[in-house]
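Practice problem: predict the structure.
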Amino acid sequence: AQAGQGLAFVTYPTALAKLPLPWLWSVLFFFMLFFLGLDSEFALLETALTAMYDGYPATRKHKVKITGIACLACYLLGLPCTSNVGQYILDLMDTYGSGFGVLFIAFWEIVGFMWIYGVNNFCKDIKLMLGTEPGWFWKATWLVIAPLFLLVIFIAALVTWESPRYGGIVEYPDWAHAVGWTIVGLSAVQIPLWAILMTIYYAIKGRISQVVKPTPEWGPGDKQVRQQILD
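Answer:
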């Protein structure tokens, strides 16, 4: 597998060398990779940071500092992937991090929005932003089809699961699999953990029904938009 990947990195520069202005195409290609990485970081990092800013409004005063620290942390976390065994680390992260954890979170995310918050409330929010409410096709997709497909894919992934091997050949040691399942657990455990904690919290306050209802603070941070929703 390593030999095949090494051959690919040799073949591509050779192909570029046969084009007119080969140095230009090489520069443009690696610039594309650079900006593609930045785009991915914006999409992933901004999601987490926006959630933190909305949950703790006081942190908005320090956006530049917090964003810089987050980018530095991501840079340091990515350094092991550039080491001699970086390809193994990347394969392990990709296998576990983008497998069960993503499917599990995606399923409960859509269930939370469409079944707990409510598909009608969600469609009203879209109408407020876009001026038109989604049709029955999208409602059916979000309410039934998408959760069902995600559940089927998740169950199929569990049934057909086999311990991953690098390139289908090299076996990982047991501690590497433990690290992989820890990666899955750190993200997936958040959903049942906070569900249990919030259930206990509202049960103690005698308002158990509030567990499956949005809080009064839920909604856009813009005061004018919030008032439109309330109206």
